[in-house]
Amino acid sequence: MTEAGSAAGPGADEERDLLGGRWLTGDTPYGAMIDRLRDFLDHVAAAKLDDATAQALDADLAAWTQRLTPMVADEAHRMFGRVRDAPGHGQVFAPAFIPDQMGDDSLHARVTFGAFHLGANYAAHGGAVALLFDEILGLPANMSAQRMARTAYLHVNYRAITPIDKELQVSAWVTKVEGRKRFVRGELRYGDLLCADAEGLFIELLPHQQ
Ligand SMILES: CCCCC/C=C\C/C=C\C/C=C\C/C=C\CCCC(=O)SCCNC(=O)CCNC(=O)[C@H](O)C(C)(C)COP(=O)(O)OP(=O)(O)OC[C@H]1O[C@@H](n2cnc3c(N)ncnc32)[C@H](O)[C@@H]1OP(=O)(O)O
Fold first, then answer.
1. I need a labelling partner for 51 at 20 to 30 A (CA). Which of 33, 62, 99, 180 fits?
2. 8 Å CB contact between 196 and 159
């Protein structure tokens, strides 16, 4: 594999997005690998390893790092975070959200935080919740934009513990558009319980900022 587009196979989605890259679909070998990587990170985070297991895993990871090093590509040809129908669109740093409804100015999704996103006491890390909101609010902020909109601020209110390993509901909707400015609100719920809400300002970039 030398570049993302050619490696993705016949299932690859050639459509280009606002960032100038390609979107892939989950039925590609890359999509399957990313699903496994997310699951792997949750298993690493949840496990108590003995020394022999840690050493074996370290050796395997070192071999894979070496194998991947010559495949480093420029940003437009990278695949990470570009699997349209994978949880968290294949960005395993982000919690595993699955969009159910996506309009021009709103989004409803399910999300499950795993062990990888644990803060303490089986609750999600506050930074992971903020990361989720950046992704989830950023999508409707960008859907109808001509150019990419960047986060200018993101205000998160933590209202209750956000549990891991439970399916949660997350929503985001544009509340106001003023020139290049898009104001977006979001909520994260576990059933009737409001875990967190957020407000973000996203600013559409000028041509020279892209
Ligand atoms: C699952 C399927 C997916 C399918 C998706 C398909 C398509 C979508 C494609 C792509 C979208 C992809 C992903 C989206 C997801 C996530 C998005 C994450 C985005 C980020 O994670 S991105 C990284 C973090 N982000 C930064 O790295 C920003 C650093 N920063 C800057 O790059 C500049 O700062 C910039 C450009 C923001 C503005 O700079 P600038 O020079 O262009 O504009 P300026 O400063 O003049 O501000 C203009 C007006 O905004 C007001 N204003 C500015 N800042 C304010 C603030 N903080 N508070 C209140 N007001 C503020 C001013 O007061 C003025 O207001 P006024 O016009 O009224 O005077």
1. 33
2. yes
